[in-house]
Amino acid sequence: MRILTGLQATDYQIHIWNYFGAVKPMIDLANKFPDAEIFLFLAIMHSFNNIQEATILRRNSINILKLYAACGADLSRFMIYNPAEIPGHAQLNRILTCITNMGFMERMHSYKEALDKWKAKEINVGVFCYPILMAADILLYDTDLVPVGKDQKQHVEYARDIAMKFNNTFGETFKIPEPYIKSEVWLIMGIDGRKMSKSYNNYIWLLDDEKTILKRVKQIPTSTQTIEESKNPDECNVYAICKLFLTSEEDEMLRKRYLAWWLSYKEAKDYLYEKIIAFVQPIQKRYSEISDQEIIDIVEKNTKKVNELAQRKIKEIYKKVGFSL
Q1: What DSSP character marks residue 18?
Q2: Is residue 198 among the annotated active site residues?
Q3: What is the pTM of this model?
Q4: Could you give phi then psi for residue 180, rounded to 5 degrees?
């Protein structure tokens, strides 16, 4: 079995939602299937849709990979590589672009979201074709499972549709991938009660210092209920974030405290702060021990290995479509 996922370098850091929505599910899958191949690619060509400054793109790419490693991605097992240096991704992207219809692409959520922000003429073509490049990233390696968040599920569905269209047209070539979604972390609330997102400025970074985390926790809005009143934990954003870090026993105990009397929101926030600090400190320590050069060397080595697989697949595809004379 081959499990594959990509990570974008549009940010310098990873926030809590990134961890529970993308990093942890990937690591859990790797542990669940100890014999599976784990492909983790740097979606640097996707990130180029938003960042065209070389120093920022390079810095973000290295740092995101360091954070993945600090969060528990096994560098000796995870095949971490850079598709931008593997010609097969661009080659397959061209072929898939030519067999994909405009109407099919215009239904894509990411394109509709871009239209909500900008006029159609202001959107770069890379944003419009983003799902096709992702399909190439996935299909090039006969992927079985693709861990994604709920907002990325449609991309895997598009990859499946494109693969089936190619197979029906040119003969059986691509394996049809399956999305893997951990439903309980589909939506993680930010400090303002909305989905945790950089665009809302409601996130907590994994590398934030204690002072910054405390400030963010204190900003979480709460109701006007007094300390004497019973409180519904499912209506409290402090609890919604806190339960991410709790064992089942700790969760049960905290819920009981909410439903009983004499729990102040200050106590709840202090407890959340302690849990976040206990969570991020080991990650920050591991992060400080990983050098940029270590990441660069690993990516370069793995990219060469993965390129060999991609070249073999491209030869098969080129023969099918008639590109090989």
Answers
A1: H
A2: yes
A3: 0.84
A4: -120, 115
Please report, for residues 181, 192, 222, 266, the alpha-carbon distance to residue 226 in angstroms, rounded to integers and kept in the order given.
39, 20, 11, 11
Sheet arrangement for strand 178-180: 79-81, 37-42, 2-7, 145-147, 178-180
301 in catalytic set:
no
Average pLDDT across each block of 10 residues of the chain; the chain has 325 residues. List them in order: 88 86 85 93 85 88 93 90 96 95 74 69 76 94 87 84 96 94 67 80 92 95 89 92 94 93 92 97 96 95 97 97 92
Catalytic pick from 150, 153, 165, 198?
Answer: 198
Query: Which candidate in 24, 165, 195, 320 is catalytic?
Result: 195
Task: Say what the pLDDT of residue 65 is.
Answer: 93
Question: What is the pLDDT at residue 121?
Answer: 66
> What would the two tokens of residue 311 be?
């070249």
319 included as an active-site residue = no
CB 98 within 8 A of CB 129: no
Q: Give CA separation, 182 vs 6, 23, 73, 117, 138, in Å.
A: 16, 11, 18, 29, 19
DSSP string of 74-130, one letter each residue: -TTTSEEE-GGG-HHHHHHHHHHHHTS-HHHHHT-HHHHHHHHHS-GGGS-HHHHTH
Catalytic residue among 117, 119, 121, 211: 117
